[in-house]
Design a protein that fits this description.
Chain lengths: 301, 293
């Protein structure tokens, strides 16, 4: 009788024969379920991360009289909110212009200042190089928040309160480190022989830099530009401290001033937030893979 | 041969910018902390250490210091633990991974003050989306009640703000850990698995130790960011009621409105605090390594 029991049902011998261990040798096709579980949890988490911004969109499109309703979604979609919010009374248009000037100005200044520094430190060993890089790292570790009282007193003395220049300088100063690290890494990865070969071909040093080196470092440069622009665009505490007048506050400070009012125009507040957020999300997605390098390179060295 | 002053021409602009935006403010900060300045901004003269003694005797300070420590430790610890899980998840291969990773960066790319404002709106006592949800699942009994006014009570306000701070810190931390995971050779983990180690055992004794450099860098950067964090508390409670949700950073800003000398003193104490916090963390993490070796 015992001999007819199918092999699969037979009790296993207490001591398995020597050979490859059974564990870790499960059939390869089985993890399909695992992949499904992993993908499902990842999708769920992705949606959770987007929910606040979906609520931003929904509120931006809520009609005024449905603002206090207890519903996730409005009954009518007020697309007119998105056109109405540009009226002079809200100050969103002028603040958006200021934000563009600050972010654009800081980006240009960072480029002008970081490009030569990053190139020179990547190509040459000289006295003071280490000290310079340490100084750059320190600026990255410090934040405008930590120094805000000193920054305020300084710019008060310079008569630069309520000017775009103050915000351009502060934003450029605190984001320069990121640009230096990422450009430095790109320049260091370009063999000097390529530049020398171009020089032999008769180009001047500047010509080589502009036509050979810079295009090769383009991904790093684009990352640095976008990162600086976003950081300056989103910056809050320096702007809140250094600008007060209605005509010089950038968008972040404008939205903050909405909160102090007796009735908060939530739909316009989030309409403007949406306009400020969507371009930034797209820009950030373009550089997403390279940002971590710029933020941590200094500390890893 | 290169001229000795050549580096100056290339690095000069960068050094000048750092001097104007970082070094000068530090000098001004130290000066201001020792000056007697009236609320309307007139400097009367030297204050000696008066700003510091006034600050240290402020009856609000002990509570604020305790809250700052809770804030920093809670936010950074939760961020690091959750990010370890997220990094592990988003390091797996599955269809649509790029899109989900893209969704993950939203709180990183968006302005923190705007993210804080949307949470403030979702926590409105009468009709906030979070309260609607909590009501649906039975956790909230009544709208417009003491319970639904999460930001009106110091304890629940702090808890929610810790949550928002974790939310905005997760993307950077997860991405840093993902970058760390990518340089760990997969064969090591595979070898441990073939030798019969469980997934968890392989993670603990192979992946986690090799992830250490990325983990420490992310933790230190988070410590400094969270300590200096201002927009979340400012937009959600303004530090209120009273001073009951102030951290030292928010308190420094509140002091600046009328007592700029004392605010400068607070900034200098903040410097000391963050140095102590980071050194303490590095000490603890090194001690952990020495114990494991």
């Amino acid at each position: 009788m015992a001999a007819r029991v199918p092999a699969a049902v037979r009790p296993r011998p207490a001591h398995p024969e020597p050979g490859p261990p059974a564990r870790g040798r499960r059939p390869r096709r089985l993890p399909a379920v695992r992949t499904v579980v992993i993908a499902a949890s990842a999708y769920l988490i992705a949606v959770l991360f987007l929910l606040p911004y979906i609520e931003m969109l929904i509120t931006a499109l809520r009609p005024q009289r449905e603002l206090l309703d207890r519903d996730y979604l409005p009954h009518h979609w007020a697309w007119s909110n998105l056109t109405g919010m540009w009226g002079a009374g809200f100050g969103i248009t002028s603040s958006l212009r200021i934000s563009l000037e600050v972010a654009g100005g800081a980006t240009i200044l960072v480029t002008l200042v970081a490009l030569p520094a990053a190139y020179y430190t990547a190509r040459h060993r000289f006295r003071g190089r280490g000290a310079f890089l340490l100084l750059v790292l320190t600026t990255q570790m410090l934040q405008p928040t930590a120094l805000i009282v000193g920054i305020y007193k300084e710019f008060l003395g310079f008569h630069l309160i309520d000017t775009v220049w103050a915000l351009i300088l502060v934003n450029a100063g605190f984001n320069m480190a990121f640009a230096v690290w990422i450009l430095n890494a790109y320049f260091a990865s370009i063999p000097p022989e390529i530049e020398e070969a171009a020089m032999v071909d008769g180009s001047g040093r500047m010509g080589v830099l502009l036509r050979v080196t810079l295009p090769l470092a383009a991904p790093g440069l684009v990352t640095a530009l976008i990162f600086t622009f976003i950081a300056a665009w989103n910056e809050f505490i320096a702007a809140l401290t250094l600008t007060t007048s209605n005509s010089t506050i950038p968008l972040t400070v404008r939205l903050d001033s909405f909160i102090g009012q007796y009735t908060v125009d939530w739909q316009h507040l989030f309409g403007a937030s949406l306009v400020a957020t969507v371009p930034v999300l797209i820009l950030f997605a373009l550089i997403e893979r390279r940002v971590v390098g710029g933020l941590t390179a200094g500390s890893i060295r | 041969m290169r001229h000795r002053l050549e580096p100056l021409a290339w690095l000069g602009p960068a050094v000048a910018l750092i001097a104007v935006v970082v070094i000068w403010p530090i000098v001004t900060l130290v000066q201001t902390s020792m000056q007697n300045i009236t609320p309307i901004g007139v400097t009367i003269g030297s204050a000696g250490a008066a700003n510091f003694t006034k600050l240290l005797h402020d009856p609000n300070l002990p509570g604020i210091l305790v809250r700052t420590v809770i804030w920093v430790i809670a936010v950074v610890a939760l961020t690091m633990v959750i990010s370890l899980g997220l990094a592990q998840l988003f390091n797996q291969r599955f269809p649509g991974r790029r899109v989900t990773r893209w969704a993950l960066i939203a709180p990183w790319a968006a302005s923190v003050m705007m993210t804080a404002l949307i949470f403030r709106w979702m926590l409105q006592p009468d009709n906030g989306a979070i309260n609607i949800f909590l009501h649906q699942i039975g956790l909230l009994h009544q709208f417009n009640s003491n319970q639904s006014s999460w930001l009106g009570r110091p304890d629940s306000a702090l808890a929610w703000m810790i949550g928002v701070a974790v939310f905005v810190s997760l993307p950077f931390t997860t991405y840093t850990l993902l970058a760390g995971l990518q340089v760990i050779p997969g064969e090591l983990f595979e070898a441990a698995r073939i030798d019969g180690a469980s997934r968890w055992r392989g993670y603990r004794s192979i992946t986690l130790p090799l992830l250490r450099p990325a983990f420490v860098v992310a933790a230190v950067i988070n410590l400094m960011n969270v300590f200096n964090s201002f927009p979340i508390i400012w937009e959600m409670t303004r530090g209120g009621p009273g001073y009951q949700t102030n951290t030292t950073t928010v308190f420094m800003y509140n002091l600046k409105e009328s007592f700029i000398g004392e605010a400068a003193a607070m900034s200098i104490v903040n410097f000391a605090l963050i140095i102590v916090i980071v050194l303490a963390y590095l000490r603890i993490s090194n001690w952990g390594r020495a114990g494991a070796a």
